[in-house]
Amino acid sequence: MDAPTTTSADNGTSGGGGGWFTPRKQPATNPGGEQEPAEGYRLAAMRPVGRTTTGEATPPSARHSAPPTPGPPTGDTSHPADDDATARERQTPPGTSTPGPSPADGLPPISPPAPPTSAEARPPIPTPQPVPAGGPPAEFAPTQARHPTPASAPAHAQPPTAPPVETRPHTPPPAPTRTEAPPTLSPHAPAPTAGPPTPQRVPAQRPVPAREASPDAVLIRRTMTEIGPVADKVTSYFYALLFVRHPDLRSLFPAAMDTQRDRLLKALLTAAEHIDNTPVLVEYLQNLGRGHRKYGTRAEHYPAVGECLIGALSKYAAGIWNPELEAAWVRAYTTISQVMIDAAAADELRAPAWWYAEVVSHDLRTSDVAVVTVRPDQPYPFLAGQYTSLETPWWPRIWRHYSFASAPRPDGLLTFHVKAVPAGWVSNALVHRARPGDIIRLGPPGGSMTVDHTTDSGLLCLGGGTGIAPIKALVEDVAEHGQRRPVEVFYGARTNQDLYDIDTMLRLQQLHPWLEVRPVVDRHGLLQLPDAIREYGPWNEYDAYVSGPPGMIRSGVDALRNSGIPAERIRHDSVEELVVIGD
Ligand SMILES: NC(=O)C1=CN([C@@H]2O[C@H](COP(=O)(O)OP(=O)(O)OC[C@H]3O[C@@H](n4cnc5c(N)ncnc54)[C@H](O)[C@@H]3O)[C@@H](O)[C@H]2O)C=CC1
C-alpha cells in the first residue's frame, strides 16, 4: 500500500484482550451472552465492556458529544476511518461521488450468509478484559463556548523574498556523537508531552520481533489471502450490509464513499492482520478511537460494524470459513474495538472531540499552494511533526489531514500548507475559497513524526512539496529546545516555483548555524529528492524524517536505509508501513 495513505502516521494500530461480542438485544444485563440471529445470519451484537450499560459513555458536556452541523445541510458525513489514512490533500472528485452503497448502485446483492447450523457452532464469547486506554485521564477541561471570537491575533509572519535558489554543494557537518542511548522506538517508550492532553507518540515504523504467529493471526491471515482477489467486493458488501442493516450509521460516513469508502474496513483488516503486534496495535487503535470522536462515533456503533465485518468476510471467504475462523475474527475485532472504545472514553474526559478554528491569515504562495493560519477556539495541544484532520464549512463531514507547519506557538495559532489537488474538495476550498474569518473544524492531533529530545542525534529531514510543512515544524522544535544538534533539510520540488516555502527555510538557516537547508529541484526526472541524500552523508548517526508524496517516502526510506540509517530511526507518516514492519 502507498504511504502515507492510512492514518499513518498514521499511526496507528491494538492488542490486549477483551470481548464484547454480546447479545444484540440484551446488552445491559447479559454481557456474555450470544446474539440472537436477526435479519438472517448475524454474529452476536456487541457491547463494549467497561462502559455504561447503554454502551454510551456519558459525555462531559454537549460540546463533546453533539456533532455540529456546519455549512449547508448536505447530509454528508465524516468517514470514521479517515484517521487511518494520511491521505492529505487527496480528495474525491466532486463529480464522481457515490451517495453510498445500495443494491441499485451495482453493489453485490445483500443476501445474508448461510446461518450457522447450530448455536454450538458459534464462537465462544471471550471474557471481557478492559484495555488500558493510555493511563489516567488528565483533568477535565471545562467546556468553553463554541462560538469563536472574531479574529484579532496577528497573522502568521510572512517570509522575506529570497534570491533565486540554487542547489549548492555542501559538506555536511561531522556526524554527531551520541551521548545517550539511541532513541528507542520501543512501543514502551514514553510519550512526549505537550501539555494535556498528551498526544500519543506512535512511531511510524517499528520493528516487530520475529516470532511465531499466534493461531488467531494465522487464521486471520488465511482469511486475508482468501479475500485478497475480491477485496473490492468485500468492501462493497461490508458497507452495503452496514448501511442496510444499520441505516442510522449512514450519516456517520461521507456522502461520497468512493475513494474514501474502504478506509474503515482497511483499517480494521490491517489491525486484525497484525493482531500479534500488540503494543503497536494498541497505540494505533487508541489514536484511531480518539480520532473517531469527531465523527460522532459511539461505543454502541462498534457491534454493528463487527457484525457486518464478519458477515462480509464469511461470505467472501466461504470456502474456508468455519467456526474456528469466525472465533478468531470475533476475538480480533473484540480486541480492536475495545481498545478504540476505551481510548475514546478516556479522551472524552480530557479533550474535546473537535475544535473550531477561525482563519486569520490566508497566503496564496503559488497558483495552487496556500499557507493558511487559524486560531482555535480553545488551546490545541500538539507536538511538532504531528498532523490534524480538518473539515471546511463547504464540505461538511469531509475531513482531510494536514500537518502543522509550525511548532506550537505562544499565540496558539496553527498554520497549514495546502496544495489544491485536481478535483480535491477540501484542498481547493482551502486554497481558493477560504478567507480570514471563515470557521473550520479540527480533529485531535495525531502522528509520531516527532523529535526525540532525549538524544542529541542529528536530524536528517526530507520534505517533498508541501511535505516540507512538518519538517519546518521540526526545525522550529529543535530551535526552541535550545539544542545544537545538526539538522539537515533536503527540500524537494519539481520546479523552482514549487519551492514555495524556501524563503522561510532559508531564513531559519540564517538564524541557526546548526541548520542546513538544501533545495533539490527535479532535473527532468533524472534527479529526485531521495537521490540527493546519496550525495551527502554519512548519515548513520542521524535520525531521519521523511515527509511528502507516497512515492517519495518509499524511495526516500530506501535511500536512507541504503545510507546506513536503521529502519527504526526513520520516521514518516504511514500506518501501512508501520504495521507491515516485521512481516
Ligand atoms: N500539506 C501537508 O501538511 C503535508 C503533505 N504531505 C504530502 O506531501 C505531498 C506533497 O505533494 P506535492 O507538493 O504535489 O509534491 P510533488 O509531487 O510536487 O513532489 C515533491 C517532491 O517529491 C519528489 N517525488 C515525488 N514523487 C516521487 C517519487 N515517486 N520518488 C522520488 N521522489 C518523488 C518530487 O521529485 C519533488 O521533489 C502530498 O502527497 C501530501 O499528501 C505530507 C506531509 C504533510
Automatic annotation (TrEMBL):
In the C-terminal section; belongs to the flavoprotein pyridine nucleotide cytochrome reductase family. Gene3D superfamilies: Globins, Nucleotide-binding domain of ferredoxin-NADP reductase (FNR) module, Translation factors. The keyword Iron-sulfur applies. It comes from Streptomyces dysideae. Residues 1-215 are annotated as: Disordered. Residues 123-135, 189-200 have a biased composition (Pro residues). Residues 79-91 have a biased composition (Basic and acidic residues). Its cofactor is heme b; FAD. Residues 352-452 form the FAD-binding FR-type domain. It is an enzyme of class 1 (oxidoreductase). InterPro entries: Cbr1-like_FAD-bd_dom, FAD-bd_FR_type, Flavoprot_Pyr_Nucl_cyt_Rdtase, FNR_nucleotide-bd, Globin, Globin-like_sf, Globin/Proto, MRET. GO terms for molecular function: 2 iron, 2 sulfur cluster binding; heme binding; nitric oxide dioxygenase NAD(P)H activity; oxygen binding. This is nitric oxide dioxygenase.
